[in-house]
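Entries read sequence, tokenised fold; example below:

***
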Amino acid sequence: MKLKWIKNQKSMAFFLAAFLVSCSQERSPVTNWAYNQPDNGGFEKPPYEEQETGPGLVLVEGGSFSMGRTETDVTYEWNNLARKVTVSSFYMDETEVSNLSFIEYLYWTSKVFGPTFPDIYYKALPDTLVWREKLAYNEPFVDNYLRHPAYRDYPVVGVNWLQANDFCAWRTDRVNEFILIREGLLLHSQSPTDQDYFSTEAYLSGKWQGQLKTKLPAYDGQNPERDVKMEDGIFLPKYRLPTEAEWEYAAYGLIGNTIGERITERRIYPWNGHGVRNASEKQLGQINANFVRGAGDYMGIAGALNDNADVTAPVYSYWPNDYGLYNMAGNVCEWVMDVYRPNTLQDADEFRPFRGNVFNTQKRDTTTLIGGLGGEILTNVDGPVYQKFKHKVSKPGAHGTTAEPEDVIDSVLTVLTKRDDDKNNNATPEGKSDIPGRVQWREVSSAVSTDNLDERRNYKMADYINYLDGDVNSSLMFSDGEDAYNDGGEKIMYEYAKTSLINDKSRVYKGGSWKDRAYFLNPGVRRYLDQRQASSWLGFRCAMTRVGSPKGLGVK
């Protein structure tokens, strides 16, 4: 008898009964000792079926495909040469993240952190000024696009890469919190604060300060109940941005063009054919995506709007591809995890290719060996949001002081902008957390004996962003003297803002947008932008790792 986590939402009483009965006499195939028996030491084998599909996600069955360009490289960048790679199965959002979903995130952030750490809320705000153009009247979008209900189902824009990752972290915790409440394990809090809001990592580390409704039964003979563990399979993996390979693979949707292991038609766009119009009898000639058809033609003419959108369109517009994903071409471009390098497709692994690894580990204290919780303040002091709202950040009592505003600001400058300036923080979504109540992370280091880097074969340091691209021979500065390093002590590979816009903060974005020509609807096209910048044509969608079977339960 096994509990079906993904198919029902049964009461806690039934779960406890099932947990006590299920596998009660099942025995270890290596020792013959029975599982879940206090007399045998209490080793547990919890009931588990398979990974639950998180809200908003669809399963993208993995496989191999030819990653890179499928048509002429009109920009002559040669940064997406075709190469066959394999992507594991994963989950991806059915649509881009909408304004309504992001406003929900802002509401929660304001409610939890606003009274004590208002700068966390202000840092999460999208930049609505991205709509402004020097010679265009776009003020109505500045004023209305994010919050007016007419645009609630449109994709959120003005979000930079760092803000997108913060949204993913928030979504992970809220979904796992709901699962615990649904299963009767957690008390529902209507007014969480910065002291007791639910954090998945803090809970698993034993640092969470909230209250449980009940616990799971334990069999160790000393404690009759326990908290949920990773081994129970109840928590979902983290929501995150997709990798470039995952996004491109999902966009093509080649599962609809396969017979056995043969791809019958390689696609230029997320649909079949060489054109951008629908070829089916019912929708013959209709535009398949939201893009610029030609010079000055963003929507067609009155009475015959070709894509029915002047700027963005609702996230469920047009036809989904064969994975059921909407707007994988057009509408808005989308952030992915990767750091941009022109030669990534040639250098990266054939299996789950990705550039951007900075290996981290939780910070541990000396007594419990459990990670500490973040308590520092996040604010981009160089950005317009901080300059506009710094008087709110430094209001009396906000930081335990009644000093003058400028004195308060000066006193916290050393901990502000951590996420922007610290390479540990901008390298991965799982970088060090400075948000109160979240587990703090650090880069692995050869200087820390417990990291055992000297004994490892697969990696010897933390930061591999510049791997095969950051050594002396690949640098513009071939010497290894002082002139080969910038003021921050980093090796000069590209003269950033002089001869190139490429550095370790340059992130890849994929897909075309409402402001692009048809060429950029090709999923193989690669472009990049500084992770701290945002745009009116750039949004994102979340992904999640698939654990276990690539196909799902009962499919071999």
